[in-house]
Specification:
Radius of gyration: 34 Å
Number of helices: 1
Family: Belongs to the ZapB family.
InterPro entries: Cell_div_ZapB
GO cellular component, one term: cytoplasm
Distance between the termini: 115 Å
Largest sheet: none
Order of helices and strands: H
Keywords: Cell cycle, Cell division, Coiled coil, Cytoplasm, Septation
Structural class: mainly alpha
Number of strands: 0
Shape: rod-shaped
Protein name: Cell division protein ZapB
Length: 79
């Protein structure tokens, strides 16, 4: 009888070990996914900063062109 109890206990221990192993593998996969996502977020933030700078530069360039165009239109009106 105690041999049967021992076998049941051994089976439960083995099942627990298998479950722990699977959970550890899942944790490793989730860590890798987390690192990948962190990298993507960092990259996106950098891209966003670049786009903001480029947008600001283009707005300034547009302003310069508008001023030049106004000056030319002003000269044309004088003629």
């Amino acid at each position: 009888m105690s041999f049967e109890v021992f076998e049941k206990l051994e089976a439960k221990v083995q099942q627990a070990i298998d479950t722990i192993t699977l959970l550890q593998m899942e944790i490793e996969e989730l860590k890798e996914q987390n690192n990948t996502l962190k990298h993507e977020v960092h990259q996106s933030a950098g891209n966003s900063e670049n786009l903001v700078r480029e947008n600001q530069h283009l707005r300034e360039e547009q302003h310069v062109w508008q001023e030049r165009l106004r000056a030319l239109l002003g000269k044309m009106e004088e003629v």
